[in-house]
Amino acid sequence: MSQPKPEVTFKYVVAPDYNPVYINGAHGGVSPRGEIMVNFYIERLPLPDSITHEINPNGTIGNETASTPADLKTTLVRHIDTGIILTAENARMFHAWLGERIREAEAIERTRSAAPPLAPPAMGDGTTH
């Protein structure tokens, strides 16, 4: 009988303020110490500081006449909520782990696209909406 292989169990402690966020981009680089810095952002249209509308004769809100800042229509915002700092070795391990998750997600996408679409229920089958 062979000896059991050594094992280790990792327990996850989740901070009370844990809050996953959606991101659609990242910006960063290598620090002077050789660490990889990544700041995650969500890119979106900016929100105005204020908008001014005319008032119609009947008292309803009319057309927009002004908004601030002036460059509102030619600006995008990259809101950075969080960032990470990794050693090169940790970045390599994260890269490998992320590559595995991408392959898993792609396999799920291929399975979904290969499956026939679900047919709508027949009329009069008692299904309610």
Q: Which terms would index this structure?
A:
129 residues, alpha+beta, three-stranded antiparallel beta sheet, two-stranded antiparallel ribbon, 21% helix, extended
Query: In what order do the strands lie side by side in the largest sheet?
Result: 1-2-5
Number of helices: 1
Q: How confident is the prediction overall: mean pLDDT?
A: 90
Quaternary class: single chain
**How many extended strands?**
5
How large is the share of residues in beta strands?
A: 25-35%
Question: Would you tell me the structural class of the helices and strands?
Answer: alpha+beta
Helix percentage = 10-25%
Largest sheet: 3 strands, antiparallel
Describe it.
The protein is α+β, with helices and mostly antiparallel strands and 129 residues long. The chain has a domain at 25-86. The protein is built from one helix and five strands, in the order E-E-E-E-E-H. The chain has a three-stranded antiparallel beta sheet. A two-stranded antiparallel sheet has the order 3-4. 0% of the residues are buried.
Summarize, please.
By secondary structure, the protein is α+β, with helices and mostly antiparallel strands.
